[in-house]
Fold:
Amino acid sequence: MNKINAVITGIGSYTPQYVLTNEEVSTIVDTSDEWITKRIGIKERRILKPEEGKGVTYLAEKAIEDLKSKKDFDPLEIEAIIFATSTPDYILPNSASLLAYKMGMTNAFGFDLSAACSGYLFALEVGQAFITSGKYKKVMVIAGDVLSTVTDYLDRNTCPIFSDSCSVSLLEATKENVGIMDSILHSDGNSLEHLHMYGGGSVNPANYETIDNRMHYIWQDGKIVFKRAVTEMSNVCMELMKRNHLSIDEIKWIIPHQANIRIINAIAQRIDIPMEKVTVNIEKFGNSSAGTIPLCINEWESQFRKGDKIILTAFGAGFTWGATYLKWGYDPA
Structure:
């Protein structure tokens, strides 16, 4: 019997309508378009305005509508939903359950997965394990964040970075030699002080002190995160290529997490891959954590061909990082 693989058969994305430009950020904190562009590579980012009263499941609903516009599927055939996010609508219930009800995927069980910027890769790993076990045939992997809700707009070092987006990927069973071929994933829990949001959990539940001390926002030591991200992402990409006997020439695309253009350039240089093979959209979308890689996939989808060998790589809080090797499953419509 042929081996069962898990393959992405469709993808959809959504970014909010409001565009926060560098010029507007410069009116909030002491920075400039030139500084942000040179240091981070971002010109604008998409933000879900808080007065809309909507969260990450709203973005996911819109992403599913985008998917359905390109690939018709029966919501009742979805058997599992994995929602990778660090900014769920609520601490409980989970966002996957809310989304299943709203979008008619009522035969599916669902849960949220928290792995920060590496969330999409971790969710793909779980989804493909469900499928290759033979127990499930259709799994919805959702990845996105509304980081504007946890961004400190008084911190000039972090507020230009973060943004909001969500994407959905339909995973299905196949016996063809396409889909998710291999993954290498890591986590390091000894790095809390370098990238964190201290407030809001069971250690520091919300109170006047945590609010006054601005503990409910993301904080990072940019220099340490930069070095670790470049090292770990490039190393894991090379390890994955070696393990699967892949040369640079065989790789059609590298799709990295969109955290910082200098990180992306450094990774490409270390693994000796031309930037023409690297997807980059950080300039117009910023860093939406788990949402960045699938947002790139959605944007480049029309350029992919069935059988293209693609490597995804990410690094995030935890620290979490990894790389996934896949063979693309379909040609453009």
Observations:
- The chain has a mean pLDDT of 97.
- The domain at 5-176 is CATH 3.40.47.10 (Peroxisomal Thiolase; Chain A, domain 1).
